[in-house]
Amino acid sequence: MPSPLPLTLVIGLAAGFFSGQFGIGGGLVTTPALRLLLGAPELIAVGTPLPVIIPTALAGAWSYFRRGLADVRLGVTMGVVGGAFAVAGALGASRVGGRIVLLVTAVLIGFLAIDMLRLALRPRHTGREVADGDTRSRSLAWVAALGAVAGLSSGFLGLGGGFVIVPALTRFFAFPVKRAIGTSLVAVSILAIPGSVSHFLLGNVDVALALVLALGVVPGAMLGSRVTAMAREKSVRVGFALMLLATGALLGITEAGLL
Questions:
Q1: Tens digits of residue pLDDT in 107-139
Q2: How many CB atoms lie within 10 A of CB 41?
Q3: What is the pLDDT of residue 2?
Q4: CA distance 233 to 107
Q5: C-alpha dihedral, 256 to 212 to 244 to 105, nearest 10°
Q6: How deeply is 254 buried, as exposed, middle or buried, from its count of CB atoms within 10 A (0-12, 13-18, 19+)?
Q7: Statement: the pTM of the whole predicted model exceeds 0.70
Q8: Which of 11, 41, 79, 195 has the greatest number of CB atoms lying within 10 Å of its CB?
Q9: d(C-alpha 17, C-alpha 219), whole Å
């Protein structure tokens, strides 16, 4: 699929930046951008971002880990469990078709954006919520369940799974948002691998396009993680929610044929 090289590089850079800043793996930027800006077919827009997510998430995860902002044990557990479910998600995406996948993506992104914005504007976690969150973080069942949902979403929607993990860690595990982002990037860097392989075998990955995108994602991820590490907690939460809301609205309007 032919694409303008400079625009593709800019998309990669933006995807890396938002991945490092918000722990989303970059798919929330690349999937809508490939569809809206480059006119990629639906399933190519879903499958191509996944291999690009891997170096993006690794670069961001390393940056957060160096600052002590990543729970590696939780991240690896979620990534390993989620990897198996990502394969099932990829198979499901090819079965239902790209248009349905992108419409589901838009609705889910919008829901998560509203929920995250509400959490950002409410008071901090109470002592009881923090205690409950600590209990869940030590429970293999809770961690594995979150990894499974993230993996299934990653394979089906091509978004890496971070958009599920970050809100879940802040809401149910009482994680500070920066630690949730760093932990999410650890998980995403693992669970994106089997999803990428599955989509490639299904013919949903444009390898040339993925390579061009990859040139911009690593420096973007390093920059994004540095910005978040220096930012106020509430500002990061609100920024994440607003970015999700705008992306979901634009993608939904486009796929519904209203734009």
A1: 887 887 787 677 667 655 555 545 545 566 667
A2: 15
A3: 46
A4: 26
A5: 40
A6: middle
A7: yes
A8: 195
A9: 8
Structural tokens at position 104: 């589901």
Encode pLDDT of 23-58 as tens digits.
Answer: 665 677 788 888 888 888 888 988 898 898 888 788
Structure tokens at 184: 């999410």
DSSP codes joined into one string, 158-216: SS-SHHHHHHHHHHHS---HHHHHHHHHHHHHHHHHHHHHHHHHTT---HHHHHHHHHH
Gyration radius of the chain over CA positions: 17
Is residue 190 within 8 A of residue 77, CB to CB? The reply is: no
- 8 near 38, Cβ under 8 Å? yes
Tell me the CB-side half-sphere exposure of residue 216, using CA atoms within 13 A: 23
Give 140-148 contacts, CB < 8 A, sequence gap 24+.
Answer: 140/77, 142/172, 142/173, 143/74, 143/77, 143/78, 143/81, 144/77, 144/78, 144/81, 146/78, 146/172, 147/77, 147/78, 147/79, 147/80, 147/81, 147/82, 147/85, 147/187, 147/191, 148/81, 148/82, 148/85
Q: Using CB atoms within 10 Å of the CB of residue 67, give its burial: 0 to 12 exposed, 13 to 18 middle, 19+ buried.
A: middle
Mean pLDDT over residues 160-177, rounded? 82
The residue behind tokens 């078709």 is 97
The pLDDT of residue 79:
93
If one counts every other C-beta atom within 10 angstroms of the C-beta of residue 47, the result is 31
Structure tokens at 223: 């920059």
- Residue 218, pLDDT > 80, answer no
